[in-house]
Amino acid sequence: MTESKDIQVKEKQEVNASAEQTKPGPTFVPVADIFETELEITLLADMPGVKPEDLDIDLRENTLTLAGEVEPPEGAEETDIFREYQTGRYFRQFTLSEVIDQSKIDAKLNDGVLRLTLPKVEKAAPRKIMVKAG
Asked: Where do the segments described as Disordered lie (predicted)?
């Protein structure tokens, strides 16, 4: 018996702002995947069009904030004829647990995908305890 899975297109999800914004335009929630190994947690966030210099990653009081901006691709002399690709800002926050070694977080942005490596503190990582004859 085979199972078929429907392919579903995910569109950018716009944030419902609870506060007044200082810039016009939409703010989107980047789609994220989180997975873990014994030694680290990895977070992938989809942020197409964001350049490293337009990405801000902030860590305060165990809250990890991702913010990035995408500028419209057309030049000053060009005008839109048809547009499906939406530009604007990306914003998402995550609460980090005490198992993350916050001083060793690593971030890489490649082809519009942000990869954050969140190493676990040494005491949280599993380890084998040797038993000595005594």
From this structure: 1-24
